[in-house]
Specification:
By secondary structure, this protein is α+β, with helices and mostly antiparallel strands. The protein has helices at about 55-70, 80-90, 95-105, 110-125, 135-145, 150-170, 195-210, 215-225, 230-235, 265-280, 300-310, 315-330, 335-345, 350-355, 360-375; strands at about 5, 15-25, 30-40, 40-50, 240, 245-250, 260.
């Protein structure tokens, strides 16, 4: 226990106090120095440090002089304790930042279940108790090694989630930014899902007879427009413009709301769905309402439909139908990749080219034949 503070040479060191600790230093009790000064009406006490830590009365007096000078010039004065507390608040443990990220961002996150699994299984064991300052390139390498038996896309997704959480923490003043750039692995194992002609016909035949019409209509709309699952969940009646033949996409993955074309087939599907909705949930603003007419949260029946159509187990209906839409258009030779990017509401057309450029055999062949004719002077 510390003894009571006493003034330390009052005439020489104004405002410097000291007390003897129970610990010994060089054969004598270790001394701990404090200073006090006024900021307005407040008398502030600040611990400076011990002799064993390299502090002295002279050092304490110098620190006090800086504090007094700052007060005199109207500057905000913070003690070392207050500074440490602020730094602690701005450098929370990674787990605290991650938990806040999922709590605040949860309702808007796409793939939140998968992200939470990555967070719990891959990130928390290694980074959970660390602050962001303690997440070094060496820690990232440890994370890579722990995922060495996983596919490159799994490693990429885990690192991207870590980066996303730290960026959230920095923007919300919970932590500093990372002091280095994370080198992301190359994702070379992404599977582009699409249906063979006979699979597509079986799928459409099942949807035509499916008893739960709202689910069937949703999958038909995905088939004919390439819309994402979440975009259809959020689709409202006010987003439909039958006169201009447009569908407004609210908060797409790219960010800003956009519109896509409404084909005659898609319009027929939507009108059938609106008739179904008006009969069961007449007051709901949503085209595909969920329980009690509220915003739909899930659609588990799609897997049953996949099985009924005898589609491959790897085929993910909503995700796969979006791929199928893009691949079919690309393979037709009637659409450029820029046009497909617009229809898919991709923010970056380069992403579309990289992903679906491989599915342009007919158009590439036609372009090659045209080039040959020009070169041959035909």
């Amino acid at each position: 226990m510390a003894t009571q503070k006493r003034r330390y040479h009052p005439k020489k060191w104004a405002g410097v106090y000291v007390y003897e600790t129970t610990e010994m230093h060089n054969g004598s009790p270790d001394l701990c120095f404090y200073i006090n000064f006024r900021s307005g009406r407040r008398l502030i006490w600040e611990k400076v440090g011990r002799i064993s830590e390299g502090y002295s009365a002279e050092v304490a007096a110098e620190i006090r002089a800086k504090r007094v000078k700052a007060v005199r010039h109207g500057e905000e004065v913070k003690t070392a304790k207050e500074i440490r507390r602020e730094q602690s608040e701005k450098n929370r443990p990674f787990q605290e930042i991650g938990d806040a990220y999922f709590e605040i961002k949860g309702p808007t996150l796409k793939g939140i279940v998968t992200d939470k699994n990555r967070y719990q299984n891959h990130l928390l064991p290694l980074c959970g108790k660390r602050t962001v300052n303690e997440i070094t390139p060496q820690v990232i390498e440890e994370l890579r090694k722990s995922l060495s038996d996983r596919k490159p896309a799994t490693v990429w997704n885990a690192l991207e989630l870590l980066r996303r959480i730290v960026n959230f923490g920095y923007k919300t003043n919970r932590c500093p930014a990372l002091s280095f750039q994370i080198e992301m692995p190359v994702k070379d194992n992404e599977v582009i899902e699409y249906l063979k002609p006979e699979e597509a016909q079986r799928f459409l035949a099942v949807l035509k007879e499916w008893p739960v019409r709202d689910v069937a209509n949703m999958l038909l709309l995905a088939f004919f427009t390439g819309m994402r699952r979440g975009e259809m969940f959020k689709l409202e009646v006010g987003d439909l413009d039958f006169h201009m033949k447009l569908i407004r996409i609210r908060d797409p993955k790219g960010g800003k709301s956009v519109s896509i074309g409404l084909s005659n087939v898609a319009e027929e599907v939507i009108r059938a769905q609106l008739a179904w909705k008006d009969e069961r949930f007449p007051g709901s603003p949503y085209v595909f309402p969920g329980k009690d007419g509220n915003l739909r949260k899930d659609c588990s029946a799609v897997d049953t439909i996949r099985k009924a159509a005898n589609l491959p187990p790897r085929f993910r209906p909503f995700h796969g139908l979006r791929h199928h839409f893009a691949v079919t258009l690309a393979n037709s030779g009637q659409f450029t990749l820029d046009m497909i990017a617009e229809m898919l509401t991709h923010k970056n057309a380069e992403f579309t080219k990289k992903k679906y450029g491989q599915f342009l055999p007919e158009s590439m062949t036609a372009a090659g034949n045209a080039a040959a004719k020009i070169l041959a002077g035909l």
